Amino acid sequence: MKILLTVDGSxxxxxxxxxxxxxxxxxxxxxxxxxDVPSPAYPxxxxxxxxxxxxxxxxxMHDDGTRLLDRIVSLLPLDVGPVTKHLVVxxxxxxxxxxxxxLKVGLILLGTRGLGPIxxxxxxxxxxxxxxxxxxxxxxxxxxxxxxxxxxxxxxxNYDADHALAFLQQKxxxxxxxxxxxxxxxxxxxxxxxxxxxxxHMEIHSIRKANDFLDETAAKLNPWGYQTRVRTTLxxxxxxxxxxxKTLNPDLMLMxxxxxxxxxxxxxxxxxxxxxxxxxxxxxxxG
Length: 287
Description:
The chain is α/β, with parallel strands linked by helices and 287 residues long. It has helices spanning 11-19, 47-75, 92-103, 117-123, 126-133, 158-168, 196-221, 237-248, 262-268, 271-278; strands spanning 2-6, 28-35, 83-89, 107-111, 137-141, 150-154, 178-185, 227-234, 252-256, 283-286. The chain has a 10-stranded mixed beta sheet, with helices on both faces.
């Protein structure tokens, strides 16, 4: 699998570098640092002077970026795969997405600075935009990944399950973790009148069917060396997942984006975006 590692010199990007030790050896590891060069903010400045100032700033940032990439390479875990460095100029999110598409990477790895949900919705963030528009799987770290023994895998149907199986079949982790397959069913009642006992029986039947679905998915993972457990609960997706995570304390959440792309996902939101806003657990989002 090709991996694109994004770095900006922050502590979060160094945590992304350290997390590579938990991933399988990359077919290609591409490291990118984007120079977001500010334009001179003086409207009365002569164009020639403004251009000279811009070029000076860009040159200094380029030198700093080159040193940063060299330092990142020196800190890489052993046997991460062949490495290529990229130093580009532009909007960080746009350049990351464009490069990922050009290189046809399977995974984009980045740290997030934990921008709050209100501010993020107003001005955007690199992690939010990469999750929205980036190809392949996105691995987003709000903090350090200290181990990778336990993964929480929420599933919301066959679409999620098929894509999760396709991703996990690639053996993306150096050591096979325990995977907890989990689904949340809504509290629903039929539109016709129904007594409490019948409603309870319907919920029990729904939970049993959901567990059968999870068991079938888990059975496909076991031959690939993954240990599994399954659980179903009732509630709303985000609250249910966060409550299960609080109980399980996973090292990583692995989940699907449910196929939404571009503006649809940006406007309507998704469970994966909601969990990104929580900024509590490392997230790996497959498309």
